[in-house]
Every structure is written in C-alpha cells, then in structure tokens.
Amino acid sequence: MLDVSPEDITDGPLLRSLAVLSAPLLAQNLVLVTQEVIDLFWLGRLSGAAVAATGFAFPVMALLFALAVFAPFVGTQVLVSQRIGGEDARGAQRAVFTGFAVAVGGGLLVGVPAYLGAGPLLEAIAFAQPQAVTGTVIRLGAAYLGVIALGLPVLAATDAAEAAFVGWGDSRASLWMNLLAVGSNLVLDPILIFGWGPAPALGVYGAALATVLGSAVGLAFAAGLLVRGRNDGMVSHAAARIDSGEIRELLEVGLPTAGQQVASQSVRIVIVAVVFAAGGAAGLAAYIVGARVATIAFVPAQGLQQATQSVVGQNLGAGNPRRSNRATWLGVALAVGALSAVGIVQWFVPGEIATLLVPELGGEAFSLSISYLEVLAYGYPALGAMYLFQGGFNGARRTTVSFYASVAQYWIVRLPIAVLGAFVLGVGVVAVFWAVTLSNIAAALGLGLYYRYSTHRGMLERATEAAASPAD
C-alpha cells in the first residue's frame, strides 16, 4: 500500500505518488515534533535553568544545522531523484556516497569550531536575548551546544541518508530511521539526564548526548539497509570514491538551501529582541506559543515539499517536464487545502490550543497568544503554497530562487514591518504578529508568480536537459 516505484512516480497517478511518498514523511515530522515536546518535558523536570539553557542555545543550533545539514540533504535528494528518473542507477549511487561524504566533512568543519567556541559564542549573542541571561544558563547552554556540535557529523550523515532514501522514492525507510532515532532518544533521555540505573546523571549533557546517540541508531539502521542492498543496491564499491565534480554539483544544488536557513534563523534572533522590546514578557510568551503551534501546523507542508522535490526531480530525469509542472501545482493545491483546514481550526479555538500547550498561561500573555494564533491562521494557506513552490524550484535545481525568496521574506518584508509597526506606528507587539503572516503571504505570491513566469520561459525544459547530461 505504501510502495511506490520510479515507474509509478514517472508514469502512474501523480496524486497517489505524492500521497504515498508524503505519508511517511508526515508521520516522521510528527514524530520529530513529539521528540521536542518530550525533551522539554524531561528537561523541565531537571530545572528551569536547563530549559532556559537549551532554549538559549537553540538559535545557534539552528544555524549550525543550516551550515552543515541542509546542503547535503537537499543536494543528495535532488541529484538522486533526477538520476533515478533518468535510469542512471550508477550516478544515483555516486550521489548517495557524495552526500554522505559532504555531510560528514561539513559536520566536522562546522562542529569542531562550534564545540571549541560554544561558551564565547553564547556570551557574544547574549545581548540579543530578551532577558538577563545568567551565568548558569550560559554555562549549561554551552554544555548542551558543545555535545550537539561534536555530534554534528553523525546528525548530518543521518539526514543525508534520509535524503537518499526519499530521493530514491523510498520514504518508508526514512520513516523507520526516524522512528528508531527518536525512540532511542526518548528512552535515553531520562536515563542520561537523571542517571537511572548504572548510568551517571549528566543533566543537559545527557539530553544532548541522547539526541546524538539516537541519531546514531537511525544511521546504523540506514547503513544496514544499504549494505543489504535495499532498492536493488543504493550503494556500490564502484561508486564509493571522492569526486570533486560530484561534490561541486551537489553543493551547487544544496548550498543555497543552507543560505536560506541562515537567512531565516538569523533574523529570528533579531525578531525575538523586537518582540520583547515591544511586548515584554507577555509578548514573548505569546510569540513562543505561536511558534510552537506553527511548528506542528507546518508538518503537512513540509512532508509534501519533500515528496514533491523527489517527484519533480525524478520526472525531470525521465524527460517529463510537463508532469513535473503538474506535480508542483498538485502539491500546492494539497498543501493549501491542508493548511487552510488547520488554520480554520486554529482560528476558531485559539484559546484552547494555547491552554493545551501551556496550561499555566494567563493574563496578558494568554490574550496575546490568542491574538497571535488568530493572525497566524490567516497566513497558513499561503505558507503551504510557499513550501510547495520552493519544492518545485528545488526539484529543478533552482535552489537559489528559494534562497533569494527567503532573504526577501525575512529581511526585506518581515523585519521592517515588525520594527516600523511596533515602534514607529505604535502598534506594539501585534505588529510583529502581522509581520510574520504578511511576509508569508508576500513570499507565497512572489514565488507563485515567478514559478509561473519561469515555467512559461522554459525552466523545466532546461532542467530536463541538464538532468539528462551524463553524470560522469
């Protein structure tokens, strides 16, 4: 039922291909969100400082992942999908090996300096935090960040393996990888944090170590599948070689997505400071509640985006530009419909959602949370369209479009509206809420218009020719 072959992707019903590929990815993303909630649960039982420390370190962690993980992830998925669509199994195998190599190398290049400079780095950005950050929070945050930084090669390689399976059209393997990784993390969390049984109590070190070890379990499972020859052999001895041309091709596709993540994560650090300056602790609490809820709401769009990138890539590799175009628009329709439904529910019951997430929330923080959840709901359909248009461009190797769109969305639209509305027009923190939604709508409209323009100008036909070029 959940099987889809390259022939299904390039010749079968598009709706079924997108649904079958995206279903495990949707489940996988929900599992990852669950992991974040469970991590927060155990750390909350450790201490408030532990929760604050991991929250303080999170923006830096997001930047590390942007630099080390996203380039090999998207580059591997796109190259593998296009080559499988073009029936170039050997080229796809080389892309799988190159993705692993780039992930491990990038993890080391980013992770080692981050480990050595974790403390000074957090101290340097403490000014951007909305509250006085204590020495204990910085110390615990540096400890957590240091372990994650050292484990970055493992985390990046695990994501590269996931991308290889999804690019091949095997999202079930990706789902099982993440179930094992997250399941191991959930089991290890209390053991390593509190020192259950013979294990020592490691506190925040233990929480970070559980994340890395859980990812290692998922990576080991993926390696077992690859060695056993899943999908008629995704790896081979002949493909296991370092090739500068392969690395360059993968990075040309993947690096813009890394830049896209850097652009979005860096502006969020500034936005947090704006939120606190405009709305104080209540405004910050509302912003955090909205961000947590939005993370869950984005799950359908993220799963569909990954599935669409593979479907578009395989059809371009198979010489089907029109089918690739149809896949993108079908994905847009599905994402808009799914997020519209989520937005309607959120708009009608924002108070219940806020209470479910943070039961102790009250007063102005609760009122502002309701306002933010309502404002966010208006932009959910646009957010779904934005993700899927990005997937269409990414599948065609036009990842630079997604990068420039994100720079415009966050730095040219969101941040100016937030600052001008909050401080110049005197709207207050609600201006930041509207800045988020308006920037999402602007990004969706801009990407949609440019996608239509680009396809009429032959973008997909040129991408088909590029995908048909020999990989050797």
SSE class: mainly alpha
What is the domain tally? 1
Q: Given the C-alpha coordinates, what overall shape results? A: globular
Helix count, DSSP H or I runs of 4 or more residues: 19
Give unreliable regions as ranges.
none
Topology as a string of helices (H) and strands (E)? HHHHHHHHHHHHHHHHHHH
Strand content: under 5%
Helical residue percent band: over 70%
Mean pLDDT: 85
Question: How far do the termini sit from each other?
Answer: 36 Å
Quaternary status of these chains?
Answer: single chain
Query: For the CA atoms, what is the radius of gyration?
Result: 22 Å
Structural write-up:
The chain is mainly α. The chain has one domain. 85% of the residues lie in helices and 0% in strands. The chain is built from 19 helices and no strands. The longest helix is centred in the middle third of the chain and has 54 residues. It is globular and about 60 Å long. It starts with 5 loop residues before the first helix and ends with a helix. The model has no long low-confidence stretch (mean pLDDT 85).
Key traits:
472 residues, 85% helix
How is the secondary structure organized here?
Elements lengths: L5 H6 L2 H33 L1 H21 L1 H16 L3 H28 L1 H8 L9 H16 L1 H17 L2 H24 L9 H24 L2 H4 L10 H54 L1 H19 L3 H28 L1 H8 L5 H33 L3 H26 L5 H27 L2 H10 L4
Q: How would you summarize what this structure contains?
A:
Helix content is 85%, strand content 0%. It is an all-alpha fold and 472 residues long.
